[in-house]
Amino acid sequence: MTTLYDFELSGNCYKLRLLMSILRVPYDVVPVDFYPGRQHKADWFLKLNPFGQLPVLEDDGLVLRDSGAILAYLARKYDPSGLWFPTDPATLADVLKWHAVADDITATSSAARLNLGMFYDFDLEKVQQGAHRIFRIMDEHLWFGEQQGRDWLCAPAHPTTADIACFPYVMLSEEGGISRQDYPAIRRWTDRVRRVPGFVVMSGIFPAGRAAE
Amino acid sequence: MTAIDKVTRDLWQVIAAIDETPPGIVQVTLLLDQQLAFTRDAALRPVVWRRNGEQIGDVVDFEAIGERLPVIEGYGYIWTSFGNPPAELFPIPEYAEADRKNMSCGSIGLHVSAPRAVENFLDMGHFPYVHTDILGAEPHTEVKEYDVEVSEERDEVLATRCRFFQPRAALSATEGQEVEYVYRVPHPFCSVLYKSCPEDDTRRDVIAIFLQPMTEERCRAHLLQSMVDSVSTITELRRFQQTIFGQDKPILENQYPKRLPLDPRSETPIRADKSAIAYRRWLSQKGITYGVIPQAG
């Protein structure tokens, strides 16, 4: 039995919905009214996660928090191919490095979106600039990767949880007033993520068109 | 600073959900380019004034508040005005029915003018493409002929006999159905829709969008649901509406220009846009200039 404590408009919750869809993991949803209800700060939720953050996943009696940790857990448990979260030392470090970048994208791009969309008190200009700094580095990394035949954030020839972790708040950046116009390699990468078999959308993210032949 | 036309100045403008406004604590917002502070007093009545350095979360010093702006409560929201507002808000009689579940669904910022957001709310043509498998699905893309009138007596735009095939018209829907809508625009920045209720075919669910014009190109959408649904929780009903609205948001924010052009030649309408055409004409005749590109001459 797998249960996701979920808010539809949360990119961090969507990371888990996305990977569970790709891995065909059936799960139940407990909706949490993050906005305007602030249920993630309610007593019943703080018992699940004292840090008061979404998402939380319950799986066979385990209560897990932190989207990056849960992505790793889901991949190790439900992906028999082992491709989504490889454990050879170099690739593992590579994936975890991008999980950390995903948290920085949350702290910048997602914060900008929360400021403009839900009136959270953040320094808008500062978080927008922070997101642009990350996007510039990512765009370069992805562009050089394409030159070498690498389509994904990490070295393997297939996507990993690193791509899932970084994808949502890159895709939702426009809601935070952060244009992706200057990042063509990022845009091509988001199209590739959206063509992964089992991909699902969330509100604010639309499917990609068909790839050019 | 942008000039505010007389009509807009005298309207009631929504600023926040009452339940989301803690008493005695400063909240801040932007209305028609002007900074406001607001709270609720010990009797839980809303108090709104022009912001003067207060920060969100400050404890309110009620003695220090100078001139208070007019305030009215309606449909779970706080409304204020910079001018001489009417004695009452426009009516939504269903809201008072005892068995309805009334709720705010969050106040969401939109990078588009308030009238653009009203117009999107009136549009059915985008359902299958933007709200795929919920409010529409291919091949059921036709917007059938419907009626639009401007009611002189009530001074509102009214669209009736709007029908659309919807795979999941509401949270309480269990199968696809042809749904009938009535749209009202009883306020230049507010719209109310009535749609067939899956649980009781003699009644209608009510969904309203109240837009708070922050600037000419930004607004805050306050979403109200007044539902006949004996099963779902408020959290579930909010989630359904937020899912829909989250799909609209990027589409709306990509509209250009962000202000609504009122010149009939500036954008090319199709037959399905009848209600939008009536709405634009109504704004023009009223003399609204805020958040729109007025007709030349």
From TrEMBL, chain A:
**Gene3D superfamilies xref list:** 1.20.1050.10, Glutaredoxin
Q: Which Pfam families match?
A: GST_N_3
Keywords from the named record? Transferase
Keyword Nucleus assigned: no
Q: Which GO terms describe its molecular function?
A: transferase activity
- The answer to keyword Magnesium applying to this record is no
Q: Where is the GST C-terminal domain?
A: 88-211
GST N-terminal domain span: 1-82
Name the SUPFAM superfamilies for this protein: GST C-terminal domain-like, Thioredoxin-like
Instruction: Identify the domain of life.
Output: Bacteria
Q: InterPro entries under this entry?
A: Glutathione-S-Trfase_C-like (IPR010987), Glutathione-S-Trfase_C_sf (IPR036282), Glutathione_S-Trfase (IPR040079), Glutathione_S-Trfase_N (IPR004045), Thioredoxin-like_sf (IPR036249)
Name this protein carries in UniProt: Glutathione S-transferase
Q: From which organism does this entry originate? A: Devosia limi DSM 17137
Automatic annotation (TrEMBL), chain B:
**This protein's UniProt keywords:** Oxidoreductase
Q: Which InterPro entries match?
A: Cholesterol_7-desaturase, VanA_C_cat
Checking Pfam families in the record gives: VanA_C (PF19112)
Q: Which residues form the Vanillate O-demethylase oxygenase-like C-terminal catalytic domain?
A: 113-285
Tell whether Nucleus is among the UniProt keywords: no
Which region is the signal sequence? none
Q: Which GO terms describe its molecular function?
A: oxidoreductase activity
Name of the protein described by the UniProt record: (2Fe-2S)-binding protein
Q: Which organism is it from?
A: Devosia limi DSM 17137
Taxonomy of the source species: Bacteria, Pseudomonadati, Pseudomonadota, Alphaproteobacteria, Hyphomicrobiales
